Amino acid sequence: MRVYKQKGSKNWTFEFEFAGEQYRESAKTTSKTLAYEAGRARRRQLEEAFNGIKKRQMPKTFSAALDEHLAVKGRTVAPSTFEIMKRCASHLRPAFGKKLLIEITAADIMDYKDKRVSAPISQRYVNMDLELMRAVLRRNGLWERIRPDVAMYRVDDEFGYELPECDEPRLREECARSISRGLYTAITLALSTGMRKSEIKHLRWNQVFLDGDTYLIVGVSKTATGRRRRVPLNTRAVAALSEWARQFPSRLPHHYVFPAEKYSKGPDGRLAAVYRHDPTRPMGSWRVAWEGCCRRAGIQMRFHDLRHTAATRMLRAGIPLTTVAAIVAWSPSTMYKMAKRYAHILLPEMREAVAVLGAKAPVNRPETGYSPPNVVAVPGLLRPRYDREELYEKVWKVPLRTLAKEYGVSDIALAKTCRKLNVPVPGRGYWAKREALLLVPPRPPLPPLNEHGGVAALERGITHGASPADGKKKPVKSEKPASRKERAPRRRKAA
Which of 75, 123, 302, 411 could bridge across to 404 with cysteines, CB 3.0–4.6 Å? Predict the structure, then answer.
């Protein structure tokens, strides 16, 4: 090791070589002895890191570990989530703040859980406290030793509310008369697109396209699946956004669709004036105005329930699940879980679904003289989803594999649907012959949908796209198979 002073400097610099690298650093001191010790300490630090030797750290208190965790999460999570974390931290500090992390046991956590739930607090809020506790212990590598003995409350998250169609006009009327002038447009957009409240609040005018192919592009979203997605707009949403845009003739593309502004109420309770209008900031909250409208309309629901309503109505109308998931931004891994949570299927609909199972006659029933009524073999759920004439025209224009993507099903499922609806489809090699400009058989006419649909044709052995002669069953030979001795080739006798 070499210690020296650089030209024009009063401080000493140490220099040494380690692992083939040259290290030169200033000791920031005028004492040569201290500079030499600093160089030795720096070299020892590199040797310990090279050999994987870590210094034993002093145990932390839970309060100090909690502060470190909040300092990191404050820069990575949303402000609303960080507020929830700080509220949970205020509950955990009195119970665990002065304890060392290594002193916290599973029994301590379960005692805290029992004390919290004994107060008038829901189990969901207790789980939020325990989740923060788990995050702090996991960051310090102490969670796995107590994880088997700590159990969260099982909270039912399948909650939500679908706005009945009979209550929707009353809610719209109250929102139109609200002092918050953008509330009516916001709920119309939520019911027409299924967007989240945060997605609507942070929407800008350069993301809305009201001419030609009307749609909007979501900018800020809760999930990565929802960002930059394109959502089509129906006529009701286009009319509401067009009327809202007329109130901002001097708007710029980067302005927010729902800007931050304050309102003053007149003697009659209506909007009197708008002040503190700032189009460069998004609207703060509709909570007070929304709760007032729901109270006057006699409805108890959250703003997020409008998203539940939109998803439920699309699924009930027979829209494929993949299409609904693309519109409301469900990730592929949670698509079916979200559909179960958002689709509020009613009891009459479940009765109709179960009735389909009882439509088939029992097999091998005893001869009691009972004859079941004539039942249409085509499932009732296929009729509102598939138009038979339209499906007949499409299957002869594009291959089933391409057409299946439009309906959101596989080509095998679409072929089964055609058989159930008695829709003839092209035979094997039809599209290859058309592509090669060869002669193809003519398209058969669409047969009538009789009482038993396409099942009667299947029972006769007739397949779609083939002639009746091709569907006849071949007679089965009743001859006994040849024995092994008979199947063996005969050997010629030697002369």
Answer: 411
